[in-house]
Specification:
Layout: H1 10-22, H2 25-32, H3 36-50, E1 55-58, E2 61-64, H4 66-92, E3 98-104, H5 106-123, E4 127-133, H6 138-141, E5 147-150, E6 159-174, H7 175-181, E7 195-197, H8 201-208, E8 220-223, H9 227-235, E9 241-244, H10 245-250, E10 254-257, E11 264-273, H11 280-293, E12 298-299
Parallel strand pairs: 3-4, 3-5, 7-8
Antiparallel strand pairs: 1-2, 5-11, 6-9, 6-10, 6-11, 6-12
Helix pairs in contact: 1-2, 1-3, 1-4, 2-3
GO molecular function, one term: DNA-binding transcription factor activity
Protein name: D-malate degradation protein R
Organism: Thalassovita mediterranea
Length: 300
């Protein structure tokens, strides 16, 4: 029996990895900047090298075979090791430098990013970081930012996204507000309370109604599109609003409303351009953000 081949072409491995993660040759080709026929030939070449069938076609998509699924774990480990080698080498040559723009909501930028930026400053002191406090994904498409932290998955084909966590959110109000208006014991009690809007009252009603809250637009008499301003209004005692638990816990003078309620799950997506795979500085920032925001994630 012939010895198994060990001098694999890494390009073939990359083609296999991209196809496995994207689920189709066309999407994998876009990710790697290749034509679909070229990528297909690389995957076929790897199957010939290994004498294994790695994919089977299911409808218009490709599905990993048992052998392909087993190989995927090893190739992903190889990719992580290769990324680390690249980052170490780049760090030694002092090329991880220059400007990286991160866009996130106002609240996220003010409350959750600073500890991450402290770690980034330690790991890559020559990086320059600019925070674009905005909720608009077009910041990436207009190249006004390199990496976005968002709560919805983008659908633009030129972007890649990773779901890194699902944060808990609760309802909060200032202690001074609850001392004045009373602490609700049930959802029904909320009909007598005031709410702050992080946007338009109409949009907020659409958010609260599915939760069973007895609210109308008249309950939202004050608020702001700027999340930091709206949260400060809450802290000053103007009403109730939902907020991520990490923010609520560190805000003085604020307490949780209806603590018996199950938390609202808030997805956290990291999004960037496909050049993530060719830019060491963006890759480093992306990976540090993913590490801090939650290690459970999946590339899409």
């Amino acid at each position: 029996m012939a010895n198994p081949k060990t001098d694999f072409d890494w390009n073939h491995m990359r083609a296999f990895l991209a196809t496995a993660e994207e689920g189709s040759l066309s999407a994998a080709a876009r990710r790697l900047g290749l034509t679909q026929p070229t990528l297909g030939r690389q995957v076929s070449a790897l199957e010939e090298e290994l004498n294994l069938m790695l994919f089977e076609r299911v409808g218009r998509n490709l599905q990993l075979t048992t052998a392909g699924a087993e190989l995927l774990h090893h190739v992903q480990a190889m990719q992580r090791a290769a990324d680390q080698v690249s980052l170490v080498a780049t760090g030694q040559s002092q090329t991880i430098e220059g400007l990286v723009r991160i866009t996130a909501s106002e609240v996220f930028s003010a409350y959750l990013l600073p500890p991450i930026l402290e770690d980034l400053r330690t790991r890559a002191p020559q990086l320059e970081i600019e925070i674009v406090a905005s909720n608009d994904l077009r910041d990436l498409m207009r190249r006004e930012a390199d990496i976005a932290i968002r709560h919805v998955r983008p659908d633009q084909p030129d972007l890649i996204a990773r779901l890194v966590n699902e944060a808990d959110a609760h309802f909060y109000a200032a202690t001074r507000y609850l001392d004045r208006k009373g602490r609700p014991n049930s959802v029904e009690d909320l009909a007598d309370h005031e709410f702050l809007n992080f946007g338009t009252p109409e949009r907020m009603v659409g958010f609260y109604k599915p939760l069973g809250f007895p609210v109308t637009e008249k309950h939202f008499r004050m608020g702001s599109e700027n999340g930091v301003v709206a949260w400060e209004l809450l802290r000053q005692g103007f009403g109730i609003a939902a907020m991520m638990a990490e923010v609520g816990r560190v805000t003085p003078g604020v307490e949780q409303v209806l603590p018996q309620m199950d938390p609202i799950k808030v997805p956290i997506w990291l999004t960037t351009h496909r050049e993530l795979h060719t830019s060491p500085k963006i890759r480093l920032v992306f990976d540090v953000l993913a590490e801090h925001l939650g290690k459970k994630g999946k590339a899409h």
